[in-house]
Amino acid sequence: MLYKRGLIGAMLGVEGIRKAQEKFGKKPLTGEQVRWGLEHLDLDTARIKELGFEGMMMPVKTSCADHEGARTARIAQWDGGAWKVISDWYTADETVTEPIVREMAAKYAAEKGIKPRDCSKEG
After folding, report:
1. β-pairing, 83-85 with 76-78?
2. pTM of the model
3. Using an 8 Å Cβ cutoff, are 15 and 7 in contact?
4. Which is nearest to 15 in space by CA: 57, 55, 74?
5. Domain boundaries of the chain, sorted by first residue
6. Other Cβ atoms within 10 Å of 22 Cβ, number
7. Which end of the chain, N or C, is less surrounded by CB atoms within 10 Å?
8. Measuring CA to CA, which residue among 63, 74, 67 is closest to residue 5?
């Protein structure tokens, strides 16, 4: 399971760079350009299948305001010899999670003196 999670993380990074290169050209990119690519991922079912990740993840669409892009997960259980997926996909209840995330992010930003980005001002 950790191996698959690592593969997904690596794929998301590569796809973010690929997306950034579509916009900024196939050249060495700045961190800001890569961030732009990661904030504009749009991996649909067909692309996930093309990349070899079918069944491992659901579609993901990220933005400046939504770095998660998806709120789905499944439960896996160790059976003594291997990890087995034992559930269907679950979707997080954002009415519960979102207020907590916003509160904790605001608290962290205040403690660290960070001014949050205003995504409505970005193109």
Report:
1. antiparallel
2. 0.84
3. no
4. 57
5. 2-91
6. 11
7. C
8. 74
